[in-house]
Amino acid sequence: VRIDAHPWSRAVADWLVAFLSKRRSDPAKLNLSFGIDPAAIFAGTGRLRMSIEALRASMPQSLAHFFAMGVPGVLLEADGRVFHNAGATEAQELGIMLASAVSYLRMFETARQPLVYAAPHIGFALSVDQDQLLSIAKMRALRRLWARVQEACSIPTSTASIHAETSFRMMTAMDPETNILRTTIACFAAACGGADSISILPHTIAHGLPAGFARRVARNTQLIMANESHIDHVTDPAYGSGAVEALTAELCELAWAELQTIEAEGGVLSSLQDGHIQKRVHAAAEQRNAAYRTGERAIIGTTLYPSKNERPVETLAAERRPAFTEGVAVCEPLFPVRVDQSIGAGS
Question: What residue spans of the chain are helical by DSSP H?
Fold first, then answer.
């Protein structure tokens, strides 16, 4: 069971635990991911329900009963998807995720709770795109970096639990069938990189809420890979590849530098509140978009070989919910923006 990060993650987690307790379910037989990530919520909505200081002081105690229940799986998650889809580089995404994970460890350390029990309940969620080698390297770099953080904290190393989702920013509105190729490559990269779970965005998501066919294609893509291609039968298939190893090492170095920068800015929440992370993410997005505008990089079906006859795309009616406006702490929100939108090539 997986709950994605959103402003009501904690309330949903409390409800789920109460429901499972009522059903007398054995926690040891469950695999849960609660997706509680204040940094991702803060960045995505620009709001926190309480001050940063109050959050840091209250979170360890408020989550203590989850640890006491012995519920396995991910309780706190360092989610990089909101930063990726706003335009962050791979190294920035990794660095921000590490900073979030370090902030969790620091909260528990301040509350005098053993880090050795908290670390295994910290997970990660990131985006993977059509750059196959870079996405594989990003997955591998994250595992290496998390092991280094735990080593620095003098606690036994636990394997990083990683959820991968195909990138939203790489999706295009024009010729949406090309998105099937992009998500397939991204899914393959996530599996090769060692993702514990994978979500594939439907290929029509740039047009609205996907209909049944697009959802079925997205679901079947990873089922075919698992059951027919058997890409999950080999552990770290990219090991020893010069290109992937070099990319992994480079990402580790750049991500660690980003982590140090964020720590010098007071931690991930303070850096977001002061706008430092947003400034770097926007700069990275603009640099990437400039490469597409000049033709240095291309989008198949959009800027290169565009389709002359666009077919209608089936979507479902969706009610738009009002934006989250409650909060004590505020920051500049980071919104997901597709590359084709940014360069004026998508609707």
Answer: 9-22, 38-45, 52-62, 64-69, 81-86, 90-110, 115-118, 132-152, 178-193, 212-224, 242-264, 268-274, 276-293, 339-342
Token pair recorded at residue 250? 């480079």
Nearest to 256 by CA among 99, 71, 60, 41: 99
Give, in order, the Cα–Cα distances in Å from 202 to each of 25, 26, 170, 229: 33, 34, 12, 21
Which residues, 6+ apart, have CB-to-CB distance to 119 below 8 Å? 105, 150, 153, 155, 158
Please state the three-class secondary structure of 58-77 as a single string. HHHHHCHHHHHHCCCEEEEE
User: b/e for 126-158, b at 16 or more Cβ within 10 A?
Assistant: bbbbbbbbbbbbbbbbbbebbeebbeebebeee
Looking at the DSSP assignment, which residues form a beta bridge with residue 209?
316
Q: What domains appear along the chain, each with residue ranges and CATH number?
A: 9-342 (3.20.20.240)
Q: Is the pTM of this model over 0.90?
A: yes
**Which pLDDT tens digit goes with each residue over 25-70?**
776 677 778 788 999 999 999 999 889 999 888 888 777 767 766 6
Q: CA 221, 35, 339, 98 torsion: positive or negative?
A: negative
Determine which helix (DSSP H) or strand (DSSP E) holds 209, and give its type and residue range.
strand 209-210
95: its two tokens: 């660095």
What three-state secondary structure class fits 113?
coil
- List Cβ neighbours of 137 (8 Å cut-off, separation of 6 or more): 90, 193, 238, 244, 247, 248, 250, 251
Residue type present at position 15: W
pLDDT tens for 81-93 read: 999 999 999 999 9
CB contact set of 81 (below 8 Å; sequence gap of 6+):
40, 125, 126, 127, 165, 168
Q: Please give the radius of gyration of the chain, using alpha carbons only, rounded to the nearest integer.
A: 20
Burial status of residue 274 (CB atoms within 10 A of its CB: 0-12, 13-18, 19 or more): middle
